[in-house]
Amino acid sequence: MFLHGTSRINDANHLEIGGCDVTELKAEYGTPLYIVDEQLVRRRCREYMEAFTASGLGFQVAYASKAFSVMAMCRLADEEGLSLDVVSDGELYTALQAGFPAERIHFHGNNKTPDEIEMAIDAGIGCFVADNLVELHMLQAIALRKEVTVNILLRVTPGVEAHAHHAYASTGQTDSKFGFDIGNGAAQEAVKLASAQSNLQLLGVHSHIGSQIFETEGFELAVERIAEFTRKVKEELGVEFPVVNLGGGFGIRYVEGDTPLQVSEYVAAITGAVKKHFTGISEKLPQIWVEPGRSIVGDAGTTLYTVGTNKEIPGVRKYVAVDGGMTDNPRPALYESKYEALLANRAAEPNEETVSIAGKCCESGDMLIWDVELPKVESGDLLAVACTGAYNYSMASNYNRIRRPAVVFVQNGQSDLVVRRESHQDIIANDIIPARIAKQTVAK
Ligand code: LLP
């Protein structure tokens, strides 16, 4: 397994993250356990902030909280000076409860409800990213009733099909549930409508072309298309865009063979393309906003499991089962995502066998890794799966009524619990047995 950030093998041949020996983390918190390398998260935040500062452009780096939305992470993003992208009342609530400054929160989503819009306006968020005509009318009506002006960006699809890791993660093409298409004229109509609304302040446009992208070409093409659109809108409608938001999607290394760029390379490509294509359109270059999620938290996360049973099918394969699975990491089942693993309590031992890592759900699709080389694995061993910081805890479920794991932040030899493990009580907390079918003591 590739060692990311502060991960290393210590003298006891144990995996250590943030100066914490994972066997001690297991003893203290149990497994499965999400371990977040705080220093690496901060480093990623700073890489974005420093690269944009170096570009000389105005900017905001909004952490896409869908990747990992918990209060401690919102605090950390705030401390590092990032803004925040939320897509639901739940993510908004999490951010507000964590004390994240509302004016740096951007609200996304293709189906914001009236209640969500009201909640966000009442909280005083910085900006809505408006996705469709129905929403534009709703935003105007609610803002008018509340006698406020709300900032909006219009989400547009620039017709760019980025090389995302899975078709479900491509969003910049014309046939997408998100946004107004530039190519078919819908985006220009939306600009006309939005700029005519008394209670909407149109700041500019937003595009997100996909996720887990390893090249800069898609981003550069999106910038070029948006610049052409900006020029046209200025000429034909007299509307200017002080802000251009280019979304997220910057790739990370999950397994050998993945070839992401450095954060600074993505940022240099984007800011370079902005300078090239936007110069001369308006007096000032637009502010550039981005929304990285995965590339902030992805490689900082490791999931620690305890190995339980195994099953060897002679001539076929050996299954090794761990105490989690698709409930804490649904990505292999959903997207056929690949991961690397390490036997974390005997990390320096040579690999001896090829095994496949199964989860504990009652479903054959619940596999975490097919065919991974490991030392001889025994029950009770600890297995670490790397790069689980993004879209793992945030996509975890209680399928089979399995309790969601705890999350710890580790740094400088210290571990801090940031999400406690769910209890059995949590599992039934929302259940109600109607009196009609409640267990009765039947008189015989
Ligand atoms: N901005 C918008 C509007 C987005 O839709 C997304 C991700 C992001 C930013 C952040 O993208 P990132 O930098 O994290 O790639 N569950 C999938 C990923 C879905 C991404 C959805 N939108 C996965 O596990 O790969």
Automatic annotation (TrEMBL):
CDD domains: PLPDE_III_DapDC
UniProt: pyridoxal 5'-phosphate binding residues: 249, 291-294, 391
Gene: lysA
Enzyme Commission code(s) on record: 4.1.1.20
Species in which this protein is naturally found: Paenibacillus jilunlii
Orn/DAP/Arg decarboxylase 2 N-terminal domain: residues covered: 41-297
Keyword Lyase: yes
Catalytic residues in the record: 362 (proton donor)
Gene3D superfamilies: Alanine racemase, Lyase, Ornithine Decarboxylase, Chain A, domain 1
Pfam families in the record: Orn_Arg_deC_N (PF02784)
Positions bearing N6-(pyridoxal phosphate)lysine: 66
Residue spans crossing the bilayer: none
Pathway info: Amino-acid biosynthesis; L-lysine biosynthesis via DAP pathway; L-lysine from DL-2,6-diaminopimelate: step 1/1
Xref: SUPFAM superfamilies: Alanine racemase C-terminal domain-like, PLP-binding barrel
Keywords: Amino-acid biosynthesis, Decarboxylase, Lyase, Lysine biosynthesis, Pyridoxal phosphate
Entry function: Specifically catalyzes the decarboxylation of meso-diaminopimelate (meso-DAP) to L-lysine.
Top EC category: lyase
Cofactor requirements of the protein: pyridoxal 5'-phosphate
One record GO biological process: lysine biosynthetic process via diaminopimelate
Residues binding substrate: 294, 331, 335, 363, 391
GO molecular function, one term: diaminopimelate decarboxylase activity
Catalytic activity: meso-2,6-diaminopimelate + H(+) = L-lysine + CO2
Protein name as it appears in the record: Diaminopimelate decarboxylase
